[in-house]
Specification:
The chain is about 35% helix and about 25% strand. The protein is an alpha/beta fold. It has a single domain, classed as ComB-like (putative 2-phosphosulfolactate phosphatase, Alpha-Beta Complex), CATH 3.90.1560. It has a ten-stranded mixed β-sheet, sandwiched between helices. Helix 1 runs parallel beside helix 5 and helix 6 crosses helix 7. The longest helix has 14 residues.
């Protein structure tokens, strides 16, 4: 099994085999919490206008996402797990668009299989990939706004790669150290309305969930995320 680590949208486009599109802060942590909060379907799209179009089709749906980290105007929720865990999403379709994560999913056109990547379900991702035993795994760290390398996404890639190699490492300190690096923005008072400190802790709870989210390309070009218990 060959494992490579790529970055940004270009990395998603070059991904082969099983592609793990990683967005720890916060898109693919949010999707895990959304399913845990009762959502029955998540549709990932790259454009705000397309999200509004999808909402017209799926009546019992909510819009979740961000631009410039903030909730999009007329959306129901921002890209915040703190918001999502308080929401009643039972039976709801979640339509999500973000700057980095959902763009990565939609651009992984050459991969045989696409799944989301986050710290909160890293263990399940490792178990799933091991069960499939593919020839090639592409770990795509989407980074901050899909432009700047993000410590948390690269760390998630490292955790998954290490697990696939059978290495038993303790990542507690590295995860905690994120709050003094790329995660320090969650602790700035001016960001509390849209990026509260609780988001940091919810996004860094290693192996909180025992499921993966597998992407299935839709007829309209968007992505359905399917929850698979592992």
């Amino acid at each position: 099994m060959k494992v490579e680590i790529l970055e940004f949208v270009e990395g998603a486009r070059n991904a082969k085999g099983i592609a793990v599109i990683i967005d720890v802060f916060r898109a693919f942590s949010v999707t895990c919490y959304a399913f845990d909060s009762g959502a029955v379907r998540i549709i990932a799209t790259s454009e705000v206008e397309e999200a509004f179009n999808l909402k017209k089709i799926y009546r019992d749906s909510v819009l979740v996402g961000e631009r410039e980290e903030r909730k999009i105007e007329e959306f129901d929720y921002g890209n915040s797990p703190t918001e999502i865990i308080k929401a009643d999403l039972k039976g709801k379709t979640v339509i999500q668009t973000t700057t980095a994560g959902t763009n990565g999913l939609l651009n992984a056109l050459n991969a045989e299989c696409v799944i989301t990547g986050s710290i909160v379900n890293a263990g399940a991702i490792i178990r799933y990939i091991k069960s499939v035993n593919p020839d090639h795994v592409s770990l795509v760290a989407m980074g901050y706004r899909a432009e700047i390398s993000a410590d948390e996404d690269l760390l998630c890639a490292e955790i998954i790669e290490s697990g696939l190699k059978g290495e038993d490492k303790n990542y507690e300190k590295k995860i905690d150290d994120l709050r003094h690096g790329s995660g320090r923005r969650f602790f700035r008072p001016e960001n509390i309305e849209y990026s509260p400190p609780t988001d940091f802790f919810l996004c860094t709870m290693l192996n909180r969930f025992n499921f993966i989210l597998k992407g299935e390309r839709r007829f309209d070009g968007n992505i359905d995320l399917m929850k698979i218990d592992i």
